[in-house]
What does this fold into?
Amino acid sequence: MVIKESRFNIVMRRTATILSVVIITFSLIAASTGILLSIYYEPASGRAYESLKMITDQIEYGWLFRKAHHLAGNGVIFIALIQIVVMFLGRKFSKSWYIAWVNGIFLTLTVIGLSWTSMIFGWDQLGFWRFNIELGTIEAIPLIGEQLREILTGGSGVSTLTVKRLYTIHSYILSTAAIILSIVHLFSVLWLEKQVSTPQELIQDVGASVAES
Ligand code: HEM
It folds into this structure.
């Protein structure tokens, strides 16, 4: 089915397509640099800080991989948020638009989750105390708060077990989800592109209607 659309919608759709390519690129950079970091990173309370320091100071290009992971990871959050707005402005209530839109929201939440889970990876004062404050907020959630806190910390206070759990959630569960969501997002935006008429077709349509009249 071919859907007719305004010039504004065409610009929004093209922007969404470009942003979905940027999102998948950043996600892949984050995933690959994350895997490289995991070679030397040690998710343990006594070793996390030292291992990240070693990656920066002693491993060849270690600083570059850390920087790339930081920029790509936070970049996905930034671009995915813009994408939600762009897609909303150029909204087109078709199946592919709904899939891309809902998918984009889940992707944004997943990447925010990735950033959140990395809070204590550095095992520094700021991350440690910030995480403790956030745990207090989680604990205050009615019905599930207590259990959620236990699942995240591994029982008692913030310890090696906590870093390990958050690292597992970050590096296996959420990163896999982010990659899958980025791929689905890209394909649904491309599908949307295929469904709507191109500017060239619009020009031809206008030409045809002028000739008819
Ligand atoms: C789509 C995939 C991924 C995304 C979007 C992502 C995102 C992030 C973000 C936003 C941070 C915080 C960086 C900062 O603000 O400094 C981070 C840190 C980190 N991530 Fe990932 N991550 C991904 C995959 C992975 C994977 C697969 C691993 C390991 C197997 C991993 C290991 C780490 C480590 C060790 C840190 C701490 C790095 C540091 O403090 O410099 N990440 N990640």
Notes: The helical segments are 7-40, 48-57, 62-89, 95-117, 125-139, 145-153, 160-195, 199-212. The two ends are 25 Å apart (CA to CA).
